[in-house]
Design a protein that fits this description.
Blueprint (H helix, E strand, L loop, with lengths): L11 H15 L4 H8 L3 H8 L7 H11 L4 H10 L7 H8 L4 E6 L10 H13 L5 H17 L7 E7 H5 L5 H15 L4 E6 L13 E5 L5 E6 L4 E4 L5 H14 L3 H14 L2
Parallel strand pairs: 1-2, 2-3
Antiparallel strand pairs: 1-4, 4-5, 5-6
């Protein structure tokens, strides 16, 4: 069986999973052995070790009992629960890093993969001011985004389709200098050979296909996944029957959005208008 390589720095869930794996292997246990001891399936243990599932309260209690430790796994799990990342998002990022194609739609703010570091910091700082996250979590969020962006600078690069609601480029974030650099970054993104950038103008009105951010992944084997989030929860959809309708809606969105040339022209005009 191929052993999945773990990157403990990629997310709190991955860090927990790496700690679980190293602890298990130090005891000489296979995943089947540990699963039998704690009353879970080996598949569940594997999913936690690779960061695809977050540890539950019951699981960490059973792990502490199995290893004979005093709340070691329980304390480790708090780092996962207190992360600034939405539930479901780390699992999405694992798949994102493997994608052959990415289709992004966002509104209100520029999608994370297209954000400059200063723009991302400004967004995170706003969350700190609202007491939504701590400063440490804000720093974690920006660092995590940088790792995501670096993971996509690979060869071959995935094809990235990005449709931005007009609100993404009109909403001022971080002051004029930060916003100017962000708009320049969008123009540069549009020039890349493996990208398509479009703006969904306000004039689309009710014809806009989505009211929440949506990401659609095409994996190298051409299978599809989608990711969407609300204010409190992220959800990765693997159901082969549920994703194609979202993809059809995305195609409709692209058909009604501005062309890349017109989108870039709009972004450049907004850049000129900044003080």
């Amino acid at each position: 069986m191929n052993k999945v390589e773990l990157d403990p720095d990629s997310s709190p869930s991955a860090e927990f999973g790496a700690f679980l794996r190293s602890s298990r292997e130090a005891r000489g246990w296979r995943q089947d052995d540990l699963a039998s001891i704690i009353g879970y399936s080996a598949t569940h243990v594997s999913a936690v070790e690779t960061g695809r599932r977050s540890p539950t309260s019951r699981l960490v209690r059973e792990l502490d009992k199995a290893f004979g430790w005093e709340r070691v796994f329980t304390r480790k799990a708090l780092d996962v629960k207190e992360t600034a990342l939405l539930a479901g998002f780390p699992e999405y990022v694992v798949q994102e890093s493997k994608a052959a194609e990415l289709r992004l739609f966002d509104l209100g703010i520029v999608p994370g993969l297209l954000q400059t570091t200063d723009y991302a910091r400004a967004i995170a700082a706003g969350a700190v001011l609202r007491n939504s996250i701590t400063q440490d979590q804000a720093d974690e969020r920006v660092a995590y985004l940088s790792r995501r962006q670096a993971a996509l600078r690979r060869d071959p690069s995935p094809m990235v389709h990005a449709v931005l609601d007009e609100s993404c480029i009109r909403r001022p974030v971080g002051g004029s200098a930060v916003m100017a650099a962000q708009l320049d970054e969008l123009v540069a993104f549009a020039k890349l050979p493996h990208t398509v950038l479009q703006v969904a103008p306000y004039a689309m009105g009710e014809r806009r296909a989505f009211d929440l951010p949506v990401n659609i992944i095409t994996l190298p084997d051409r299978s599809l996944m989608s990711y969407a989030e609300s204010a409190q929860q992220g959800h990765l959809e693997r159901d082969s029957g549920a994703v194609p309708p979202l993809l059809a809606s995305y195609y409709q969105l692209q058909a009604l959005a501005l062309s890349q040339a017109d989108s870039v022209a709009m972004i450049r005009q907004l850049r000129k208008e900044l003080p």
